[in-house]
Specification:
Layout lengths: L4 H57 L3 E5 L9 E2 L10 E6 L3 E2 L4 E3 L4 E10 L7 E7 L2 E8 L8 E10 L4 E8 L2 E2 L6 E9 L19
Antiparallel strand pairs: 1-3, 1-12, 2-11, 4-5, 5-10, 6-9, 6-12, 7-8, 7-10
Pfam family, one: C1q
Main location: secreted
Subcellular location: Secreted
């Protein structure tokens, strides 16, 4: 028994309707997939921006630097120093990280890492030569000499790189001589080069020469 033409038309219409529904759903799925891809790309872009901000924030929070000198100066006498006295630079130009204490002249590392220190000294015309050392935890790292006997107002400078753990201290100390010039003639600077948690070994000076000032 054959189906009537009306019934066949009804089945064909139903089939076409179902096919249209399937095609519509396929287009919806494609649109959703495109939206999902765009959303994933946007999320990745935002995550990259967040990571970049975090790296920048971490870098800025680890920034440590100081630059100091003496506020006053006397052309003849300079700044008088006692035996093995710490140079208490009281004119703080920069102190990022607040590691330098102008009351004591001591820098205390707020962040562990590799630091570089620069020291420049000038002798006076009436107190002869001057030796100043950069000390780390009481051990000398470098010696700076300014010859003030035959060459008044001589200037010496030095730099040293070392690893510091959090809380370790560095300062400039008189080794021999009586005075240095103040103001911009004698200055001390330190900078964190690379934050690290693993300590590196840097040998200190086992013995220091002492230049005669007589």
């Amino acid at each position: 028994m054959q189906a009537s033409p009306r019934l066949r038309r009804s089945d064909d219409e139903t089939l076409r309707s179902l096919q249209d529904v399937v095609q519509d759903q396929a287009r919806v799925i494609q649109s959703l997939q495109a939206s999902l891809t765009a959303l994933e790309s946007k999320v990745q872009s935002q995550q990259s921006a967040i990571n970049s901000l975090q790296v920048r924030e971490n870098h800025e929070s680890n920034a440590v630097a100081f630059s100091v000198r003496f506020q006053s100066d006397d052309e003849s006498n300079g700044v008088l120093l006692g035996q093995h006295q710490t140079l208490t630079f009281n004119d703080v130009i920069t102190n990022i990280g607040n590691g330098y204490d102008s009351a004591t002249g001591i820098f205390t590392a707020p962040v562990a890492g590799v630091y570089i220190f620069f020291l420049r000294v000038m002798s006076t015309n009436s107190h002869g030569s001057i030796d100043v050392v950069i000390d780390k935890q009481g051990a000398p790292l470098d010696l700076i000499f300014a010859e003030g006997q035959t060459d008044p107002y001589d200037q010496g400078s030095g730099q040293v790189t070392t690893h510091l753990a959090v809380g370790e201290k560095v300062w400039a100390r008189q080794q021999s001589g009586e005075a240095v010039r103040g103001r911009w003639y004698t200055s001390f600077t330190g900078l964190l080069l690379n934050p690290k948690t693993v300590s590196h070994s840097f040998s200190s000076l086992s013995s220091l020469p002492c230049h005669s000032t007589t």
